[in-house]
Amino acid sequence: MSDIKEIKSIRIVPYTLMNSSISAVVAFIYAIFIVLILGIAGNFLPSSLGITGGVIASLGVALLILLPAAGFVFSVTQSFLTALIYNVFVPRIGGIKLELRDMKEIVGVPVVPFALMLSAIGATIVFIAMLIIGPLIMIGLQAAVIGAAYQGTVIPGLSSIGALGIVGLLILIIGVPIVMFVASFIMTALTAIIYNLLAPKIGGIEFEFEALKEKLYGINSIPAVKLALITAIVMAIVNLIFEAISTVSSIAMGSSAVAGVISLLINVVVNLVVSFIIYAIMAVLYNYLAPKIGSVKVELE
């Protein structure tokens, strides 16, 4: 038996701590792969370049430290804002709804609430970022225009962009979030539609919920294979749709049809495999970390 549950709120601290911890570990795994690739590539580089084993080792150590730290800090900021904005928006636009079978398996996701909330969160985060980055971008463009004029250099289009001033700033602060909202809504709605078509056939994402108190549930564990399988297939199909549009456009402009189709198929297969591995790793990490740092907690109604 299935029932529709709405996520009324997300506990900010557990959500932020879990996401940032997983991001740090995944970034550390990425760093290990990069270091291995650098080590292998270093054996084939000519000595005339001056890239010694010591240089590669130093770079590897730096990556092993910096990537996890950067991943953790970035994820803390993003996760905190995501949970906070979600909780603020729920009373205004409604929360994400899940169709749960036996209070365990997500067999469906109502499209509009899902797409509306995620696109609103994404647009709000971009708006906040542009409030900080936008003025810096405009100052940089103005400085580039002044510097180019001082040196007598003419860069096509730069002067007109730099002259936008307050209009350019408004485009960055208002226009970019609006574009982000529209693009994100289309993407997330398409994702939900495909998920709803596939979940009854191949099985949906499952959560092992624990009732903590009235309406508050902790997610104790997430079956890794089920999460990775449905998520990877959905993402691969979404990627296939947009890549197919891009490929058709390239062929229409004169690109090789054979090369375009081959590139499309390779891209989709790689996306499928990589997505499966990443989401499986994330689920395994969640299941390992949940008993140690606390599970993600949500209020369902």
UniProtKB/TrEMBL annotation:
Keyword Transmembrane helix: yes
Entry's transmembrane regions: 21-41, 47-67, 72-94, 114-141, 153-174, 180-198, 219-242, 262-289
Swiss-Prot/TrEMBL keywords: Membrane, Transmembrane, Transmembrane helix
Source organism superkingdom: Archaea
Name of the protein in its database record: Uncharacterized protein
Source organism per UniProt: Methanobacterium congolense
